[in-house]
Structures are given as structure tokens and as C-alpha cells.
Amino acid sequence: MTGFASDRCGTYTLHQPEVPSSFLRRLAGLPARVLDRLLIWQERAAERAHLASLDDRILKDIGLSRSEADIEARKPFWRV
């Protein structure tokens, strides 16, 4: 519990609760996870843009119709 306490000399110190080490580990890894997510989103957006640029012959070769490719290409980058 957060609060103030005094010692025998009358000096007040602030006591804060202990922070679990698991929380600190997760917090330390946050920048790497954010960067990973941004890179995934960037790659996904590029793949969908490339899919939108393919002609019908290539789509047929990979087993997609134009409408299926358009649906996938129009998805926002954050959606799987």
C-alpha cells in the first residue's frame, strides 16, 4: 500500500507497493512487440497491394477469383 512513514528521526519516506517482476519483464519487451506488430502490418499491407495488382491469369493460377482477391485486398492492414 502506498503511504508515508517516518523513522525515529522524523524523516518521512514514501513507501510504494512492490512491482511484480513479471510486469517489468513485459514492460521491457513492449518496444520489441510494438515494432514486430508494425512490421507485420507493413508486410500485410504490401502483400495486399501486390495481390490487388495481379491480373486475372495469375489469380487463376493461384486459385483465386478476381472478387476473392478484391475482398482480401480491401481488408485493412490490421485485420487477418
Explain what you see.
This protein is mainly alpha-helical. It has a domain at 38-80. It is built from four helices and two strands, in the order E-E-H-H-H-H. It has helices at residues 21-28, 30-53, 56-61, 66-74, and strands at 3-6, 12-15. A two-stranded antiparallel ribbon has the order 1-2. A hairpin with a 5-residue loop joins strand 1 and strand 2 (12-15). Helix 2 (30-53) runs antiparallel to helix 4 (66-74). The longest helix is centred in the middle third of the chain and has 24 residues, at 30-53. The chain is rod-shaped, with a radius of gyration of 26 Å. The model has no long low-confidence stretch (mean pLDDT 88).
Per-chain topology:
Elements: E1 3-6, E2 12-15, H1 21-28, H2 30-53, H3 56-61, H4 66-74
Antiparallel strand pairs: 1-2
Task: Label this structure with key terms.
80 residues; mainly alpha; two-stranded antiparallel ribbon; rod-shaped
Helix and strand succession?
EEHHHH
- Strand ordering within the main sheet: 1-2
Poorly predicted runs are none
The mean pLDDT is 88
What would you call the shape?
rod-shaped
Secondary structure tally, helices: 4
Number of strands: 2
Rg over C-alpha atoms, rounded to the nearest angstrom? 26 Å
Calculate the terminal CA-CA distance, rounded to whole Å.
42 Å
Structural class given helices, strands, pairing? mainly alpha
Q: Approximately how much beta-strand content do the residues carry?
A: 5-15%
The biggest beta sheet reads: 2 strands, antiparallel
Q: Helix coverage percent of residues?
A: 55-70%
